[in-house]
Write a structure and sequence with these properties.
By secondary structure, the protein is mostly beta strands. The chain has no helices and 14 strands. A hairpin with a 2-residue loop joins strand 5 and strand 6.
């Protein structure tokens, strides 16, 4: 079970206000997992878990067919970019978004990272649903393996 702790000081970017109420959006936290981890997500050896400022991109809901990828990383995204922001130093961000389904991508050097997850009978990258008058809260784990 994950417990999310959200700290203040988030940077905000938003889409036009005519498309949403102030209550709709996303609060997210980026956690970087570097090293070797077992299937349960525990550090197996030579690993660390940390957060830091990262660039985050929100695209329309994006499947494997809408990207060019190389292993765990995405080189190009061919769906529509909705907005982008930079997390605070703790990896936390907050965005106002209209009701809908989105994919979240995290910049990792000159590429993007996002896990594929089953959502509505297909696989999409970090799918997030924003519902009317609600703020979604999500933890996004970026598994970058061993840095060389």
């Amino acid at each position: 079970m994950c417990c999310l702790v959200f700290l203040g000081g988030c940077q905000k970017n938003s889409v036009p206000k005519a498309q949403q109420s102030n209550d709709e959006g996303l609060i997210g936290k980026i956690v970087i997992k570097e090293g070797y981890f077992d299937a349960a997500g525990n550090i197996a050896s030579q690993g660390r878990v940390y957060s830091e400022a990262r660039r985050v991109y929100v695209y329309q809901l994006t499947s494997m067919r809408e990207v060019a990828y190389n292993g765990s990383f995405v080189n190009a995204i061919y769906s529509d970019l909705i907005t982008e922001t930079t997390t605070d130093e703790y990896g936390v961000f907050k965005l106002q978004l209209p009701v809908g389904n989105y994919s979240i991508f995290v910049q990792e050097q000159d590429q993007y990272y996002a896990e594929l997850k089953l959502f509505r009978n297909d696989f999409y990258f970090f799918p997030v649903t924003i519902q009317r008058n609600e703020t979604a809260k999500e933890l996004f784990e970026v598994n970058i393996g061993i840095k060389e």
